[in-house]
Specification:
By secondary structure, the protein is an alpha+beta fold. It has 16 helices and 29 strands.
Length: 653
């Protein structure tokens, strides 16, 4: 045991660079000067070669109108306490208003961002407080009647009342709810926003321990023509303007302009970014570049350096057959193309613009045409929980993310007919940021430079570097991180142009460590690593290719779906150096790594196992568990991580 522990520590030191950090002396462009925020102590732990911080960029509480409908009663303070490792109560509630379920993370998060829907902050308060005249309005009465509705049927009436206006190009608030001049809604919206800011400030550890970081944020909830165009808006620090909702900005361009004016130009010290999510149900509009101009592309790139690649409503990386033949693009796929679309049509065509990899391809094409890449995205992940539980991504402990509507096994295994819910959903994803310290300033700069990766919920640690001087033996270097930064760019970076005198293409190196897990639930061994490349083909189009670079896709690992016991061997760590065999210095390109764990049970298989369900053909041994015997519902998944890409731009482009 002592030998294995020494080996584990040595491996982590190799990956994290936990040695005196001198890399800035040999790679001066890699690192920025340490900056201590005003109003806080310097972090006692500071790693110049950066460490991975695990967190959550997308979580909702009772301040979101749809979370209220799901009978979520916990607020941002509760959400941050949960993220730090505390217990939380979940619906349904008993006659005394006490929760009948609880949840708690086995491992706390390092950071979290509560992103409640900015639309209806005020209406939500008014509809729940009888002291307001609007409380008795028809909309508020129907809203309250819809709280805690069981899943099934069409779009719930509460979602229709407040959700449908967000699908129109010219949304308006209800004077019957908001009062004359909308004064009550505006005042209550400001009150909720103040509470959100206060909760984030209270949760932020400003001591030298730097144990937890929170950010102020919200969600902009555009569903124009039923197309999901949502963005999570995140602020650098506590200097923030009033939120800009879909009522004030009905297009992404209007949102960006409003944020630029209200934050960057309007408040000294304010900075902001927006994170698109769920392009998989965007009807092809999230990454539409049909009207792109150089100015549009540059503006979007500056405002949206990150994209949410996975969450509880599915994976948005890619879809098998939609611009690719990649069989690994079948992971956690929704059969919807847009939000509130009704029952999926098995014959429907999925827009290529619904998926991030296709957006990356369009981005390098746009750069070749206009000089600016609107889709130079780093990757993050979230849960999109609507029950105040950021980071609750364990398959074995999944209790749903939609409050009362997923509060028991039958509800969670229910097949939805209108909106993504029930058995088509999953526990969600996590974000990992490579930062010198766990502070707002450190994590913000990691987001801005895109030194981030997403996981499907587990916690492997992954490094990815690319450059022209990456040593072929870097995997055996005494300090992998130092060598990587010295030789090139980390994930999220852009390689310098291929200059005269270079005779070899760039090399890429990726190093991954298995998620250690916990004593109760050990992590799963790694299976393999891929590098995904996309490039312009010189004929007005783009291509892609997936390369196996480490591990073994045919290692024979499996899982017993009756007991969820893993079978077969894997790898505690994997490292590779890969040189692009088709590199062309005249082509724009991107590269990202994808790390796979061995197969494990999906959450639904755990649910069926725990209920003792057996199947006689398609008939389960207990009513309400039909999904357990449905071959269309996968029992097995492969958890994974996606690194942010590294881009190559030709000389003179």
């Amino acid at each position: 045991m002592q030998g294995r522990e020494r080996a584990r520590r040595a491996s982590r030191a190799l990956l994290f660079g936990l040695v005196p950090a001198l890399a800035c002396a040999i790679a001066p462009t890699c690192f920025q000067q340490r900056r201590v925020e005003a109003g806080r102590e310097p972090c006692a732990s500071y790693q110049a070669l950066r460490a991975p911080f695990f967190g959550e960029t997308h979580a909702h509480t009772t301040y979101s109108f749809d979370a209220v409908l799901l009978d979520t009663r916990t607020d941002p303070r509760d959400a941050y306490a949960f993220a730090r490792g505390g217990p939380i109560g979940l619906p349904p509630y008993d006659a005394l208003g006490q929760p009948t379920r609880t949840a708690q993370l086995e491992r706390p998060l390092d950071f979290a961002i509560v992103t409640d829907h900015a639309e209806y902050f005020g209406e939500r308060n008014i509809c729940l407080d009888p002291s307001f005249a609007g409380y008795a309005s028809t909309n508020c009465v129907r809203f309250r009647q819809a709280i805690g509705a069981a899943p099934g049927g069409g779009v719930p009436i509460g979602f229709q009342i407040f959700g449908l206006p967000l699908t129109t190009a010219s949304p308006s608030r209800s004077p019957a709810v908001c009062g004359s001049g909308l004064v009550d809604c505006l005042a209550q919206s400001a009150s909720v926003w103040a509470e959100i800011q206060a909760a984030a400030e209270e949760a932020y550890d400003r001591t030298s321990a730097c144990a937890f970081t929170s950010f102020v944020g919200y969600e902009w909830t555009a569903n124009t023509s039923f197309s999901n165009l949502h963005r999570n808006v995140v602020f650098r620090n506590e200097i923030v303007p009033e939120p800009i909702s879909y009522f004030e900005a009905t297009t992404p361009e209007a949102l960006w302009s409003g944020l630029e004016s209200a934050c960057r130009e309007g408040l000294p010290g304010c900075d902001v970014l927006a994170i698109p999510h769920n392009s998989n149900i965007g009807n092809g509009f999230m990454f539409d570049a049909s009207a792109a101009t150089p100015e549009y592309n540059a503006t979007r790139a500056a405002m949206e350096p990150l994209v949410e690649i996975a969450q509880h409503k599915g994976d948005s990386e890619c879809r098998t057959g939609v611009g690719n033949t990649d069989e690994d693009c079948s992971f956690e796929k929704l059969d919807w193309t847009s939000i509130f679309a009704g029952p999926p049509d098995p014959e429907q065509t999925f827009p290529p613009e619904n998926f991030v990899r296709n957006a990356l391809r369009e981005g390098v094409l746009q750069e070749s045409l206009t000089g600016a890449n609107p889709f130079r995205f780093g990757f993050v992940g979230g849960t999109d929980t609507h029950r105040s539980t950021p980071g609750a991504t364990d398959e074995f402990a999944y209790q749903g993310h939609l409050g009362f509507a997923e509060s028991n096994p039958e509800f969670r295994l229910f097949y939805p007919m209108t909106v993504p819910a029930g058995n088509v959903n999953n526990p969600g994803a996590l974000t990992v940021l490579w930062s010198e310290e766990n502070s707002r300033e450190g994590l913000w700069r990691a987001m801005r430079r895109r030194e981030a990766y997403a996981t499907s919920g587990t916690r492997p640690v992954v490094r990815f570097f690319g450059g022209y001087q990456v040593p072929s033996d870097i995997c055996s270097a005494p300090n992998y991180a130092r060598a990587g930064y010295a030789a090139g760019e980390p994930m999220g970076g852009v390689l310098p142009a291929f200059y005269p005198g270079l005779t070899a293409p760039p090399r890429f190196t990726v190093l991954a460590l298995q998620d250690p897990g916990t004593a109760a639930h050990p992590g799963t061994p790694l299976q393999r690593i891929q590098i995904v490349k996309g490039w312009t083909d010189g004929q007005g189009g783009t291509q892609e290719q997936v390369f196996e670079v480490a591990g073994d896709p045919n290692n024979g690992a499996s899982v017993d779906t009756q007991t969820c016991t893993p079978q077969g061997a894997g790898f505690a760590s994997l490292c590779a150096v890969w040189e692009d065999p088709g590199f062309d210095p005249a082509q724009h390109a991107f590269y990202y790594a994808r790390v796979f764990e061995n197969p494990t049970c999906r959450w639904s298989a755990y649910e069926c196992r725990d209920a003792g369900i057996t199947c006689d053909g398609a008939t389960p041994s207990q009513e309400g568990y039909e999904a357990c015997c449905d071959p269309a519902i996968p029992n097995v998944i492969q958890e994974r991580a996606w690194t942010s890409p590294i881009w190559f731009t030709p000389s003179g482009a």
